[in-house]
């Protein structure tokens, strides 16, 4: 597939290198211009672009940025051809992100993103922590391979996103429409807990919507205490903490 990635931070640069390694034609952009795209994003054949060029003539656009970046690309995304698959990987974290009254009132984050851009989107990769994304990718069929939920209102969007998730080293799990996508938000049993395909269905079903914000905010405090002067927690530690808080 031809893939444009907007955002080359922790997640975007790994997405760019993995998807290019899997044979996709990848263009990667950040907020500042092609010459500032980090080299790690380009090690396997992705090319650096500015945001306008990254989304031109592609099959898929991946939004790999926090919500504050959305304003600058709103027009660009809203005017993409309808058949382009737009995949959002974002999570809302109050404190890091400006307060969003609709999300505070309980709207599903992906439904907010869909309405913000006024076009269909899919949600994927939001539920994997960056340390696990870096270290837990495995070939298809490997026992215990980590699974990631994929939501979207159009079947073709989910199919494309599942294919790309598989190509980054994880089982893609069809989690249904965006109305149900709150089940994969921060604070839910599937969020950064590295579950397998067999564990995914029961864990999505076990999510309790009204408890997610409190659990998300608690986890933000716990993880903030573990970074800084100390090294950031490794994948195993992140999963251990997340399972204790969210499951
Ligand atoms: N980190 C994780 O563990 C993780 C895991 C899953 C999902 N997520 C979610 O994924 C999103 C990205 O996370 P991250 O950790 O990768 O963020 P990050 O390291 O802060 O990187 C954000 C990237 O977005 C780019 N950006 C911002 N506004 C942009 C714009 N208008 N056009 C193009 N690029 C723009 C930034 O560009 P510059 O480099 O020019 O500033 C930067 O490259 C967040 O919503 C996060 O919650 C994160």
What proportion strand?
5-15%
Average pLDDT metric? 97
The low-confidence parts are: none
Q: Helical region count?
A: 10
Q: How do the helices and strands follow one another from N- to C-terminus?
A: EHEEHEHEHHEHEHEHHH
CATH class of the domain at 66-177: Alpha Beta
At the fourth level of CATH, the homologous superfamily of the domain at 66-177 is NAD(P)-binding Rossmann-like Domain
Helix content: 25-40%
Shape, per Cα inertia axes: globular
Bound molecules: NADP nicotinamide-adenine-dinucleotide phosphate
Please provide the count of β strands.
8
Rg, alpha carbons: 17 Å
Please name the CATH topology of the domain at 66-177: Rossmann fold
| Strands side by side in the biggest sheet | 3-2-1-4-5-6-7-8
SS class:
alpha/beta
CATH architecture of the domain at 66-177: 3-Layer(aba) Sandwich
| Major sheet size, sense and barrel closure | 8 strands, mixed
Terminal residue distance: 36 Å
Protein name: Pyrroline-5-carboxylate reductase catalytic N-terminal domain-containing protein
GO molecular function: oxidoreductase activity
Region (Disordered): 133-152
Keywords: Oxidoreductase
Q: Quick summary of this structure?
A:
With 247 residues, this protein is an alpha/beta fold.
Q: What does it look like?
A:
The chain is an alpha/beta fold and 247 residues long. It has a domain at 66-177: NAD(P)-binding Rossmann-like Domain (Rossmann fold), CATH 3.40.50.720. Helix content is 38%, strand content 13%. It has helices at 10-21, 51-54, 70-78, 101-104, 109-117, 130-135, 155-167, 197-206, 212-226, 235-246, and strands at 2-6, 25-29, 47-48, 60-63, 85-88, 122-123, 147-152, 171-174. Strands 3-2-1-4-5-6-7-8 form an eight-stranded mixed β-sheet. Helix 1 (10-21) links the parallel strand 1 (2-6) and strand 2. Helix 9 packs antiparallel against helix 10 (235-246). The longest helix is centred in the last third of the chain and has 15 residues, at 212-226. The protein is globular. The model has no long low-confidence stretch (mean pLDDT 97). The structure holds NADP nicotinamide-adenine-dinucleotide phosphate. NADP nicotinamide-adenine-dinucleotide phosphate binds next to helix 1 and helix 3. Residues 6-12, 29-32, 51, 64-66, 69, 72-73, 89-91, 125-126, 128-130 line the site of NADP nicotinamide-adenine-dinucleotide phosphate.
């Amino acid at each position: 597939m031809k893939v444009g990635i907007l955002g080359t931070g922790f997640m975007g640069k790994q997405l760019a290198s993995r998807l290019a390694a899997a044979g996709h034609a990848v263009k990667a952009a950040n907020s500042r211009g092609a010459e500032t795209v980090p080299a790690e994003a380009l090690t396997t054949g992705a090319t650096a672009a500015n945001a306008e060029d990254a989304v031109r003539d592609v099959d898929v656009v991946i939004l790999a940025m926090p919500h504050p970046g959305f304003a600058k690309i709103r027009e660009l995304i809203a005017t993409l051809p309808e058949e382009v698959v737009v995949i959002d990987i974002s999570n809302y974290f109050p404190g890091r992100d400006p307060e969003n009254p609709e999300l505070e009132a309980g709207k599903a984050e992906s439904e907010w993103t869909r309405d913000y851009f006024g076009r269909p989107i899919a949600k994927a990769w939001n539920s994997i922590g960056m340390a696990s994304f870096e270290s837990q990718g495995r070939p298809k069929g490997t026992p215990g391979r980590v699974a990631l939920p994929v939501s979207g209102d159009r079947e073709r969007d989910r199919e494309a996103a599942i294919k790309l998730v598989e190509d980054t080293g994880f089982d893609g799990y069809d989690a249904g429409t965006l109305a149900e996508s709150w089940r994969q938000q921060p604070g839910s049993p599937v969020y950064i807990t590295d579950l397998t395909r067999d564990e995914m269905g029961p864990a999505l079903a076990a999510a309790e919507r009204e408890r997610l914000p409190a659990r998300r905010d608690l986890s933000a405090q716990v993880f903030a205490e573990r970074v800084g002067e100390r090294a950031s927690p490794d994948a195993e530690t992140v999963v251990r903490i997340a399972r204790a808080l969210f499951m």
